[in-house]
Amino acid sequence: MLMSYFTAMGRGSSKPWREMPKNKTDDLSFVENYQPKKKKVKHLRILLHGPVGVGKSSFINSVTSCLQGRITCSNAFTDATSGGSFTTQYKTHKIKTENSARSCPFVFNDTMGLEEGNNHGVHVEDIKLAMKGHVRENYMFDPKSPLSEGDEGYNPCPTLDDKVHILVFVVDAGKVSLMDDKVVKKMRDVRRAACDLGIPQLAILTKLDEACPMAKTNVENVYKNDYLKQQVDMFSQSVGLPLSCIFLVKNYSSEIVTNDDIDTMILNTLRQIINYGEDFLDNLEQN
Questions:
Q1: I need a labelling partner for 262 at 20 to 30 A (CA). Which of 50, 63, 269, 284 fits?
Q2: Percent helix, strand, coil in the chain (nearest 5)?
């Protein structure tokens, strides 16, 4: 039984279910030269959310490493233990490229992880307020009490820059089938709120090297792997996101130097995130 499980995890098809992105140079150029088309927007705001320990902060660090050409963890602190959420504050993470002293015109906001109970993890209402721009910088998440109007961390008059322009779900690729029903329900609740606000959503499945032994040594063929395809399908059905909005990403974890294949996956996903965010801003212009 155990042997058949690992065989399934490593099984691949001769034909990929999605083409692996190849053009790192083109995607890197796109990201480095990106500027929001809407003049009133200084930066595109990307909100990451998902269960505890899935790699939200690690994704921010991986993007930074990719754009700076070296491994870095100075942007968002992570925790190697398996405890509760290491992110406790609402912070805006700015990114710089290797060849520029200026920050990129897109920013990431990380959130405390979702957990099963009512008094554990981030409150869904706090995520909803963050999407509307009502959460101030450095607000300390309180698992027992969501932010309320009049609280010190509440922003009563958010600008377009304060609001979220693209919501990104982050999930552990090897634990999609193990997600608690209450956590899935919270994710669907957040997605409905984002839809009501017109905010586009995208998902990334991380920790490919833990979910699929093949990815530990070679990430080139992850889109040929049957097990990973099953996880993508399962997450799509659970949360309701179209398959075209779900991407596989290998975060930097044990590496001490950057890798072209990992960079390519990160850059291609980042490009899609930016494009989705631009669609949101473009719709605002038309309405």
A1: 50
A2: 40, 15, 45
Query: What is the chain's alpha carbon radius of gyration, rounded to the nearest angstrom?
Result: 18
Cβ burial of 261 (10 Å; 0-12, 13-18, 19+) is middle
Dist CA 95 CA 193 (whole Å): 27
Which distant-in-sequence residues (6+ apart) come within 8 Å of 152 by Cβ? Answer: 136
Burial (CB count within 10 angstroms: exposed 0-12, middle 13-18, buried 19+), residue 10: middle
pLDDT band for position 161 (50/70/90)? very high
Verdict on whether the full-model pTM lies above 0.85: yes
Does the pLDDT at position 175 exceed 70?
A: yes
Domains of the chain, start order: 47-286 (3.40.50.300)
Among 238, 240, 242, 168, which residue's Cα sits nearest to residue 205?
168
